[in-house]
Design brief:
Distance between the termini: 47 Å
Number of helices: 30
Low-confidence stretches: 244-252, 659-666
Number of strands: 19
Structural class: alpha/beta
Strand content: 5-15%
Radius of gyration: 32 Å
Oligomer: single chain
Length: 766
């Protein structure tokens, strides 16, 4: 028998075709009781239900609910889910690329859009009662995490916040911070997966259980097999005339060496559908090519017509030239055989097609990058990991336990599978014990990645003033964690300070003893550095001082020495505390100094008052990694006089998205573009020098690689023509679509020309 719900939760639950889990009930009850809630639960456990209940509460109170996500693909998916649940007229979508029904009572958006609305005091905030932050653990993302933290800090206290997160080990700490900055907060942690997960390792074509059911360690059969493989590989070749013949060049095959064979093995073990994670787009595409070349087929004749119909539904409006440029023939061939690649390099309409086919069990294997693990609803029976190392901008890094859990969390379809399966491909550089450690670790804490950008700084100063900005940063999760990390040092400094005060009081009771102690210190120094006559004079002064004749002289001198050492120790502790806890404020102050130097802010250090200039107001509207550079280009006129297509081309150089930097722009442009690019690079050089002088991170250098392709599209030549130029810079169709959309956003922010002056991205590509 289920416990009694509150009135609104009772109405909401009656419309569901399943019974709420205990953690869902507790989270929804917190919202109905006007509390914020943080829900940490495994992937696929049903956290979204809590977000849907927040939308329900907004609707019944005639308020508004914003549902935010980290990526546009997830926003689009949630938009379709919510329109199905609440009705087309009650749901809107805001992603920067798309503005649909923004006045609706439920609006799905990317978190960046919410941050911009809060900074700009958007009228759409009127009547806002609930905000849902899906995948709030993105707060730890090194590049974009600050967006979540800023949004939480700026959100009005009257708005109820529902934060949905993957399982993190410091959920209570994160919840304590939310409670400190927002008030009553309920933390709900659920660690049980709705579908149990079985861990495997595939080695030598054999599928082993990774973990022993007896003690939870590495399975004995797997250990013995790999030990045998290593012995065989290490064995010397037989002596001449020996019977055993070693294959030339024989060695342990690397993970995924024969992907078509592994796919066949997964099919034979009834482990499809599967998501096979590879950490590069090129690797995903190469895996599809291997399967095409090996004539892999995972579908039968009855599937083909449905697959082609769905693909044509999504792509029917694309011109034949665009389809050819996007590699449509190989793409549809792979779909009809039951496999595909899924990554950000694909145009969105291709990704949407794959997602729909996978959900219908028509595509059986998807080779994907890790972006698929972020919220997009594509659960599988099995997840395959080929490597435990992924490439990053700073070089290859090993997967963390949290990343491993996030990736394997896609395995197991609720209501379909009795259990999910995680399969790691063995290779000599992957030890089973390492995988077992990742699979069993439950310690993956959430850390703040808040940084003070120029746009953030001017918005804070404009809204709150300098002191108010510092106070808000002092309430951040970054500051909260910094203070927690040095809490023991701060407590030690506090205890030391109390002891120092007691020593000072005791020494002060000995009248004139400070002077005597000072003479003794000077004499000690003089004996090592000063002439003999100086030492003689000081020695006489010490002996003749009344303090020299005190009976408790030695005790007082010992106390004074202890006091001096303790004071030095305390100053060191306080310096360590300040170095950690004051880092964020110091960065803000250095940023303020540079903004003042460049004329975006006028700051009076005497009064502490700062005024944001017209240039600073313009900067407050620029949202990109090179916001100050863009503002400087506008301030100096570096982008003035350009035609709309030329402006788009130059603006594309400062978005910093190219995965492979190019020294020159591919293709021909115009003299005006070339001159504007040179001016942009000169300004970047000035800013880089100023940033280094102020101890700030240097802004990204302008990249000319996308300029020619964006220019072609912006002047109306279309996607195929743009891709033809972009091929020299290794830019894919999905990259180009995304880069062009971001360019349109940036051009609109500059207010040098209206967005409508440039060709939009066709809806069929979105």
């Amino acid at each position: 028998m289920h416990r009694q719900y509150g009135p609104q939760l009772t109405l909401f639950a009656a419309e569901l075709d399943f019974v709420l889990d205990e953690f869902q009930t507790r989270a929804c009850e917190a919202l109905e009781n006007h509390r914020d809630v943080l829900v940490c639960a495994p992937t696929g456990s049903g956290k979204t239900v809590v977000g849907e209940f927040a939308a329900h509460l907004a609707l019944v109170s005639n308020g508004t609910c914003f549902y935010t996500t980290p990526i546009k693909a997830l926003s689009n998916q949630k938009f379709h889910d919510f329109t199905h649940r609440f009705g087309d007229h009650r749901v809107g979508l805001l992603t920067g690329d798309i503005t649909h029904n923004p006045d609706a009572p439920v609006v799905v958006m990317t978190t960046e859009v919410l941050r911009s609305m809060l900074h700009g005091h958007s009228p759409l905030l009127t009547g806002l009662t609930h905000v849902v932050m899906d995948e709030v653990h993105y707060l730890a993302d090194s590049e974009r995490g600050a967006v979540w933290e800023e949004s939480i800090l700026h959100l009005p206290a009257t708005v109820r916040l529902a934060s949905l997160s993957a399982t993190v080990s410091n959920a209570e700490e994160f919840g304590d911070w939310i409670a400190r900055v927002r008030g009553d907060t309920t933390v709900v942690v659920e660690e049980t997966r709705p579908v149990p997960l079985t861990q495997h390792m595939l080695a030598g074509g054999r599928l082993f259980d990774l973990l022993s059911p007896v003690d939870g360690g590495v399975d004995d059969n797997l250990e013995r097999y790999i030990a045998h493989r290593r012995l065989v590989e290490a064995a010397p070749p037989p002596a001449p005339g020996g019977r055993r013949r070693r294959r030339r060049g024989h060695r342990a095959e690397p993970a995924g060496a024969d992907r078509p064979e592994i796919v066949a093995r997964l099919e034979a073990e009834q482990l499809l559908p599967a998501i096979w994670f590879r950490f590069s787009r090129a690797g995903c595409d190469a895996a599809v090519t291997e399967c095409l070349d090996a004539s892999v087929r995972l579908t039968d004749g009855s599937d083909l017509s449905e697959i082609r119909a769905i693909a044509e539904k999504h792509t029917a409006s694309l011109p034949p030239g665009d389809l050819d440029a996007l590699g449509y023939a190989d793409w549809i061939d792979g779909l009809e055989r039951g496999f595909a690649a899924h990554h950000a390099g694909l145009v969105p309409t291709f990704r949407h097609t794959i997602e729909e086919l996978f959900a219908r069990n028509l595509v059986k294997v998807v080779f994907a990058t890790e972006t698929l693990a972020v919220g997009v609803n594509m659960p599988a029976r099995t997840v395959v990991l080929e490597r435990l190392v992924k490439p990053t901008a700073d070089g290859p890094v090993r997967l963390t336990a949290g990343e491993y859990t996030q990736l394997t969390g896609r395995a197991g379809r609720r209501g379909i599978d009795d259990k999910g399966h995680a399969v790691v491909l063995w290779s000599p550089d992957i030890a089973p014990a390492t995988v077992a450690g990742l699979a069993s670790t439950r310690t993956y804490p959430l850390h703040s990645s808040l940084r003070i950008g120029y746009n953030t700084a001017v918005n804070l100063i404009d809204d709150l003033g300098v002191d108010g900005a510092r106070a808000l940063l002092g309430r951040s999760f970054a500051q909260f964690q910094a203070q927690n990390s040095v809490a023991a040092l701060a407590e030690a400094a506090r205890v030391n300070s109390a002891t120092l005060a007691a020593l000072d009081a005791e020494l002060a009771e000995a009248e004139g003893f400070d002077e005597y102690r000072s003479l003794c210190d000077r004499l000690a120094i003089a004996r090592t550095t000063a002439p003999a006559d100086t030492v003689t004079v000081l020695a006489r002064a010490v002996r003749s001082h009344p303090g020299h004749r005190r009976g408790d002289r030695d005790r007082l001198l010992t106390l004074a020495a202890h006091r001096s050492a303790l004071n030095t120790d305390t100053e060191l502790l306080l310096a360590q505390v300040h170095a950690v806890s004051g880092r964020l404020i110091d960065t803000f102050d250095r940023t303020l100094a540079l903004l003042d130097e460049r004329g975006h802010v006028i700051y009076d250090p005497i009064s502490g008052h700062a005024h944001v200039t017209d240039d600073g107001v313009r900067l407050s509207r620029i949202y990109c990694g090179s916001d100050l550079l863009v503002s400087e280009c506008l301030r100096t006129g570096a982008w003035a006089g350009l035609e709309p297509a030329e402006l788009a081309a130059v603006a594309s150089s400062v978005l910093g998205e190219n995965r492979r930097r190019s020294a020159t722009s591919a293709g021909r442009t115009t003299p005006a573009i070339d001159e504007a690019l040179r001016a942009t690079v000169r300004l970047w050089g000035e800013l880089a020098e100023a940033e280094e002088r102020h101890g700030l991170a240097v802004s990204p250098e302008p990249d000319p690689a996308p300029v020619a392709a964006i220019h072609r599209w912006a002047r109306g030549d279309g996607l195929a023509a743009a891709l033809q130029v972009a091929s020299d810079s290794a830019r894919s169709g999905g990259d180009l679509v995304r880069h062009y959309l971001r360019t349109l956003d940036l051009v609109d922010q500059t207010r040098l020309c209206p967005r409508g002056a440039l060709p939009p991205v066709p809806a069929t590509l979105l």
